[in-house]
């Protein structure tokens, strides 16, 4: 825990750990040289079977082979969209694009034609790598429909067709020089306004953010991590994949999240670590009530992506009997901003989102004047760090609205900071409910409601009202029992 005594809501970056100047590709080479025979990747099929396995030497070999093939068909700086669930080829594409200087564009496998077309067009992608289908979504058919009239798309490749994936093209096979500050990925973030925006992320940001996160999550070489987070999100392809890489540990890549499959997997493969959003963790707890499995191998569960209710924290710690920590971040910051330490108190874990990661400046600023506010005062959470995105791709106005002239990235989230640098989320700038001139924060109301034993999930919003301006409305999911 950082022992600080702040006088205002400004946390100056701690430098107890340095930012490594290394690319994703060089990192894989480094780990494969040091731990060639260590188990790196295990494919977990939808029904729960573990199929293909890679050591770090094999993962490097396949990634470099794919990078060389891609380099004969695409130029450094070009963009390729990967549209697939958590299949091993997704990770191979991530490493191969990093080696080849190609920018990987991520796409949610649940997208329909209009959404996919938007991402392909807005990102200026020149190719689409996809699977046949996903949860009944006919992706091969949608891909044809979505790319009609997009002349920039030179290839549509089936990721399950090895011959097509590794095909050699016309150009000479040569890997370029790649720098840590180069763009490596574009991740689309929907946010709460308008069309999705493509956050352009760097090798430096993704590599170091994953290392700091994995370190605070106490990841080590004997960790067995079940990756249930989607690879199209920074949590799956960044935090978990690159975090496991830097610990040289084993990652089980779960193709589709199914709570019964995951709980059985924990028992069979002696899984020690999980990252999941609260909805996933609720599903795991409900599944274990119906079908108990041995959870004794578990060492660490972490969660983020939404406010984690205190009741859920207590239940996870009780059922999994392991360390639990929440974290906070967003795509634009590669993604983690704050995270709990393993020895934080239950009170802090339940009520805060932890302290900032190393090398990360965080401030709470007034929404109207962009000034640092007093301690324990609500304002917008802002970040200045090595992990901030370069820009929103081809969207200078949105970039200027998000990153101010001093380099502070405005998250759009409201929160408070105490004298120890621990932060609490109180809502979104655009979700704050103003009732009769009083500011109400949905997260605070949700946490109170979630203390009721018959409520599993809740969402609070403001709706227009003639008398009060806005009033509170609650959407509630009752306990299944």
From TrEMBL:
Gene Ontology BP, a term: fatty acid metabolic process
Alphabetical UniProt keywords: Ligase
GO MF entry, a single one: medium-chain fatty acid-CoA ligase activity
Occurrences of domain AMP-dependent synthetase/ligase (ranges): 29-392
Signal peptide extent: none
Domain AMP-binding enzyme C-terminal: 444-478
InterPro entries xref list: AMP-bd_C, AMP-bd_C_sf, AMP-binding_CS, AMP-dep_synth/lig_dom
Family listed: Belongs to the ATP-dependent AMP-binding enzyme family.
PANTHER family linked: ACYL-COA SYNTHETASE, MEDIUM-CHAIN ACYL-COA LIGASE ACSF2, MITOCHONDRIAL
Protein's name according to its UniProt entry: AMP-dependent synthetase/ligase domain-containing protein
Species of origin: marine metagenome
């Amino acid at each position: 825990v950082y022992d600080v005594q702040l006088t205002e809501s400004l946390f100056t970056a701690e430098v107890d750990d340095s930012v490594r100047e290394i690319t994703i590709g060089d990192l894989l080479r480094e780990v494969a040289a040091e731990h060639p025979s260590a188990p790196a990747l295990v494919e977990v099929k939808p029904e729960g079977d573990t199929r293909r396995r890679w050591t770090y030497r094999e993962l490097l070999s396949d990634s470099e082979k794919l990078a060389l093939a891609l380099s004969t068909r695409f130029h450094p700086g070009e963009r390729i969209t990967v549209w697939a669930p958590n299949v091993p080829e997704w990770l191979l594409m991530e490493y191969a694009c990093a080696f080849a200087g190609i920018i990987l564009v991520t796409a949610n496998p649940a997208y329909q034609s209009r959404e996919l077309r938007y991402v392909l067009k807005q990102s200026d992608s020149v190719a689409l790598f996809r699977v046949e289908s996903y949860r009944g979504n006919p992706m091969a058919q949608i891909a044809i429909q979505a790319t009609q009239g997009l002349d920039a798309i030179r290839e549509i490749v089936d990721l399950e067709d090895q011959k097509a994936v590794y095909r050699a093209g016309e150009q000479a096979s040569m890997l370029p020089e790649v720098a840590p500050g180069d763009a490596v990925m574009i991740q689309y973030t929907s946010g709460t306004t308008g069309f999705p925006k493509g956050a352009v992320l760097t090798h430096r940001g993704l590599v170091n953010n994953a290392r700091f996160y994995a370190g605070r999550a106490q990841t080590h070489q004997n960790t067995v991590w079940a990756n249930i987070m989607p690879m199209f999100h920074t949590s799956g392809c960044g935090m978990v994949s690159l975090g496991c890489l830097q610990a040289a540990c084993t990652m089980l890549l779960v193709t589709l999240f199914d709570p019964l499959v995951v709980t059985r997997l924990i028992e069979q493969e002696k899984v020690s670590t999980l990252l999941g959003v609260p909805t996933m963790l609720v599903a795991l707890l409900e599944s274990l009530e119906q079908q108990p499995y041995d959870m004794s191998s578990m060492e660490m569960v972490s969660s983020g992506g939404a406010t984690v209710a205190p009741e859920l924290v207590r239940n996870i710690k009780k059922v999994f009997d392991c360390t639990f920590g929440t974290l906070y971040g967003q795509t634009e910051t590669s993604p983690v901003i704050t995270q709990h330490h393993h020895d934080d108190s239950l009170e802090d874990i339940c009520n805060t989102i932890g302290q900032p990661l190393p090398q990360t400046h965080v401030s709470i600023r007034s929404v109207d004047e962009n000034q640092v506010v007093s301690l324990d005062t609500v304002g917008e959470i802002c970040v200045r760090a090595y992990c901030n995105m370069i820009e929103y791709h081809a969207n200078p106005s949105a970039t200027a609205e998000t990153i101010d002239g001093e380099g502070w990235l405005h998250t759009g989230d409201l929160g408070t900071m105490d004298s120890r640098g621990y932060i609490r989320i109180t809502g979104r700038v655009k979700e704050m409910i103003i009732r009769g001139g009083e500011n109400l924060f949905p997260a605070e109301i949700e946490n109170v409601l979630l203390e009721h034993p018959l409520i599993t999930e809740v969402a609070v919003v403001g709706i227009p009202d003639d008398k009060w301006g806005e009033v509170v409305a609650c959407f509630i999911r009752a306990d299944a029992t």
